[in-house]
Design a protein that fits this description.
This protein is mostly helical. The protein has helices at 3-12, 20-29. The chain has 2 helices and no strands.
């Protein structure tokens, strides 16, 4: 349980109104830490799974002899 949830429990169930910064300060003093870490969700995969990378068909040869011969796009965030 993190400091935010501790403050919510104190305020909601016990009726003790306290600032979250005070709860954070007390948690740091007594080394109270949440076991669950928030993991950001992303639409891209990490570098640990390189199998999602598309094949390099152009091999950095971007020159086209006629129009509509090579089409490219970029989907980076």
């Amino acid at each position: 349980m993190g400091y935010r949830r501790i403050r919510d429990e104190l305020d909601g169930h016990k009726g003790i109104h306290v600032n979250d910064k005070r709860v954070l300060r007390i948690c740091r003093k007594y080394d109270i830490k949440s076991k669950i870490k928030w993991k950001p969700k992303s639409c891209t995969r990490g570098e640990r799974n390189p199998d999602h990378i598309a094949k390099n068909y152009l091999h950095r040869d971007f020159h086209a002899d006629k129009p509509n011969e090579k089409w490219l796009t970029d989907v980076s965030e």
